[in-house]
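hey m, so remember when u said the C-alpha cells were messed up on ur end? i reran from scratch. heres the input so u can diff it against urs
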Amino acid sequence: MKTRFFHLAVLIAARAWSSPSPPETASYTLHATLDPREMRVVGNEVLRWKNTTTHSVDEMRFHLYMNAFKSAETTLMRGGGAAVPEDFSEWGSIRVSRIEIDGGRRLQLETIAPDDSNQHDQTVARLVLPEPLEPGAGLTLRMSFSVKLPLCLSRTGYAGDFIMLAQWYPKVGVLMPDGSWNCHQMLPFGEFFADFGDYDVTLRLPERFTIVASGTRLSRVLEGSTQVVRYRAEGVTDFAAAAQPRVPVQKSFWRRRDGSRVVLELFMQPEHLRYADRHRRAMEVSLELLEDWCAPYPYPTLTLVDPPWHAAATAGGMEYPMLFTTATPLLESSGCLDTIEGITIHETVHQYFQGILASDEVAEPWLDEGVTSYLTSKILDSRYGPSELDLRFRRMPMAWFIPLPRIASWQREKIGWLSSPDAGVATSASWEYQSDQAYYSQVYARPALFFRGLENRIGTPAIRRAFTRYYEEHAFSHPQAADLIRALSDAAGADVGGDLAALLGSARPPDLRIDDVVPGDGRNRPARILVSRHGPAPWPVVVCAWTGGERPVSLVWDTRTRQQEFKVTGPVCAVAIDPDQTVLLDRDDLNNSWEARHDRRFAWGWSEALAGVIQALLAP
C-alpha cells in the first residue's frame, strides 16, 4: 500500500510542474524482455520520426551502440575505449531482425563505418527509404531487435547480477539543418548526441530484480515470477535503466522554489547505504544552484544509480535523462569530496548541460563537460569548501591515518589540467584526443578553469546572467559553442570569443612571468618591474606591487605586449601578477610572484604532510 501511494505521489509531482515543450523529433515506444540468466534483451521498437529540416531525405541513419562490444576489432576497442584481457569472451552485440515502414513494407538496414571505414565496426547502420521524406513530414518505423549484453566494459552491460541497460536499442541519428546526418560510430572518446522525443517503455524481467529507469513509473504488474514495469519520459534524448536483485531504493522529495516537488530516487548498494545522505544532499544543492543559474529542474524525477564497487570504474559516472550513475568507493573519508559529492554533483549538472542543452558531445565535448566541470567546482567550493586530497593506500583513505591538506575544487581542476597541458586544444572534436588523461585535461579541466577565471574577471552576477540567457535561448535544442560565446560576451560587455580562442584553442597555453624586480630605494631610484608573456595573449591583467603600505600599487598590463616594464616609487617588497586569478590557465604560477623576503611556512607545511604520507606508506 505504501508503494502504491508513493507512485501516486510521483504522478502528482509530475503534473505539478509545467515544463517547457521540447520538440518531438524522435519518439519511441519500446517493449523489451530482459533475461538475466542469458544476459539478453529481446524487444520491439516503434519509432515516430519527423523531418524538421528544409531538405528532403532519402535515407536514415541509426546507432547500434551495442555492436561496439562485438569484438576486439571495433573502433571503440581498437582505440582503447575499454580495457579487456586477451582471453576475453563476454562480448555484446545488437541485431535488428525486422524493420517495417508505414503500411508494413519491409526494409533492410545496412551497416556502415562513416568515420574510419573499419569493416569490423557495425555501430552505424543506413536505412534507404522507399521514397524521399519531404520537409515537415514524418514516418513510423517498427523494428524487432535482440541484444546480447556484454560484461560491463564501458558504461553498459552487466557486472555480476548488476545490469546497466544503456544505449541498448536502435537509435536514430540527428538530421542536421543542412540535410546531412550526424551519426558517428562509437568512438573511444566523446559520448552521445540525439534528438528530443517522448519514450514509452515497457520492460519484463524477473520479479526479484529491483529496477529503476529514466522517467516516471506508470505501472508495475506481476505475472507469476515476472514483473512488467512501464515508464514514460517526455522531452528527453535517451532512455536507460538499471536492475539488480534486492537492492534498496530510497525515495524522497525535493522542492522547487515554487513549492512543486521533484522525486529523488537513490538505487544504493547495501554496503554503501551509509553514504546515501551525502549523495542526496549533493543532488539537492546541485538542483538549488541550477535553479538559480538556469531554471527549475523541468522533469518529475531524478534517479541516482550506485553500481557495485567492483563495477564503479566501468559503469559509474555517466549521465542519462532523469538518471545517472555514480561511483561510490567501498571506503571513504568524511573530508574527501571527490568521489561521492564530486561525481554526484557533476552528473546532476549534466541533467542540464547535455540533458536539456543537448550539445554535440562527439564534435564539441568541451561544451558540456567543461561547463559541467566548472559548475561542479562552483557548487563544491560554495556549498562545501575545500576538500581533503584523495590519497589512498590499498583503497584505504590516507586521511584515516594522517591529516591531509585541503584544497579548493578549482585547484584540483588545475592539477588535472597540468597533467597534460600540451595535449592538444580544448575545442577539438573527441576523436582527436589520444588518451584519457589528455581528454580530461583539455575537455574537462581546461574549460572549467577558463570559466572560473572569467567569473573572477567579470563577477559572479554577470556570468550567472550569461548561463541564464544561454539556457533560456537554447533549452531543448542543440546549442553550439557560438551560442555560449554570444551569451558570455553579452554578459561581459565585450566579445570573449577571442579570449576563448586564445585560452582554449591554442596548443601552447600562456605563461605570464615576472622576469626581474629592482626594488628601488624609495628616494632617488624608482623600483623597476619587468614582466613578460610566453604563449597566447589573454585579457589584460593587473600587476600589484607592495611598497610597505596597506594597499598595493595596481598596474594594468595589456598582455598583447609580449614584455613590459613598470616603474614604481619604491622600495618594493613584493610583486604579484594577476592576484585576482582571472587567468587560471597560466601554466606556471611559481613565476607570477616575487618577494624580497621569502615566507617558508607554506613549504614547511607541505613538507610535513608529505613526510607523514611517506612514513605511513613505508610502515611495516
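this time it looks ok to me. The two ends are 56 Å apart (CA to CA). if urs says something different then somethings off w ur setup not the seq
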